[in-house]
Every structure is written in structure tokens, then in C-alpha cells.
Amino acid sequence: MWSPLYVTLFQSTIVNAISNILAQIIDQWKSEEPFRLNFTALVQFVTYCIIIVPINFYWQRWMEAHYPGFPTSLRRWFSRSSSPRAAPGGRAVDNHPVLIPIEELAVKEKSIASVQSSSHASRLPSASDRNNNPNGTKNFVIKFLLDQTVGSVMNIWLFIVLINLLKGSSWAFTATRVREDMPGIMIARLKYRPVVASLMYTVIPVDRRVVFGSACGVIWSVYLSLHSLSR
């Protein structure tokens, strides 16, 4: 059975490859020539994703291990949604909610056990730990702020650096791109990322957050491209 990291890497790579192909289609939309896939650009972007996904995977795990849980009001909502309901014959039937608590799926996977036994600091909290955590709202706010600051700067910086280096650019040129491009990309990210982060740290399991972020990135990229074409 594949580990959560390999599943996340595979799913995110597929999602980001689709994102790049969609971006190329939109970029060539007004061209009179037939669509021609830029395979080099696709490979460069996929390579970037393969490098960045494990970094974000363990970043999300680190945050959840150190700041577990989510707001108490949402925990009560989940408790009501997942409470058993009685069947006509009196037998309790699990009323499976659409949204599942953080890490409910991940804690069942074998790889979590090895992580827990190897390092207490990196141990992911169990479901009972999260449900009994009185600091759920505080930890949610901390994770949210870390995502908007440290996470944003890290991901934007790595994106600009890796993409330019994969294109064969020099370090000097890459440094110039970082100085010129980071402010604009940071502002653009802040226009949609808070909504994504709010969902990530309340209803998305930790080992699915990178894939969820990639999927939202596709939607965001397509929206921005279509918006710019309509102007």
C-alpha cells in the first residue's frame, strides 16, 4: 500500500500537470494557429511540483503535530453530524458526514504509526486528542497565520527560484525575478488563499491538504487567466 506522501505526490502531480495544460490552452486561445503543447514547459512545471509537494506535505504535518485541532464550534458541528442515528429496527446506523474531521483518515494509515514511533515531536495527534483539545480555536488561528506568512513566502520564493532555474536562468537573473515578482504574486495569493486555508485547517485531513491546495490552485489560475482574457 502506498504511503500518504506517495499518494499526495501522485495526485498533486496530475492536478498540476492539468493546470499547466489548461494555462497553455488559455495562453494560445486567441492564436490563429492550432494548439501546440509546450512539452518543455510542462516538464519543467511538473518537475517543480515533484520538488515542492514533499516540502508542503511535511510542512502541513509539522503544523498539525504542533498545533492540533480546530475551532470548538466546528468540533460540535462534526459531533452532531457524525452522531449515530437509529434505524427502523432500533439498530444504530452511522450517519457518515460529507466532511470528515482533520486526520481521521490519515491516522489509520500504516505510515503514521512509524512516524509516531520514530519521533514524539512529529507525532500526529489522534482523533481523541483533537476532540479533547481546548486550544482548537487558538491553534487554528496560529496555523492560519503561519500559512499566510511563512507558508506563502516559502512557496512563492521556491516557485520563482525553481521555475527560473529549471528554465536554465542564471542565479543573478533568478535573484532579480525574486525581487520583482514576489510582491505581486504575494498580493495575488492573499486574494484567495485565506479562504483555502480556512477550509484546509477545519475540514480537510492533513494528508490531503497539499492535493486540495493544488486543486484550488487550478481553479484560481484558470479564473485569473479567463479574467485577464475578458479585459
TrEMBL record:
Keywords: Membrane, Transmembrane, Transmembrane helix
Sequence intervals crossing the membrane: 39-59, 144-166, 210-229
GO cellular component, one term: peroxisomal membrane
Subcellular location: Membrane
One Pfam family here: Mpv17_PMP22
Superkingdom classification of source: Eukaryota
Record membrane topology: Multi-pass membrane protein
Family the entry assigns: Belongs to the peroxisomal membrane protein PXMP2/4 family.
Protein name (Swiss-Prot/TrEMBL): Mpv17 / PMP22 family protein
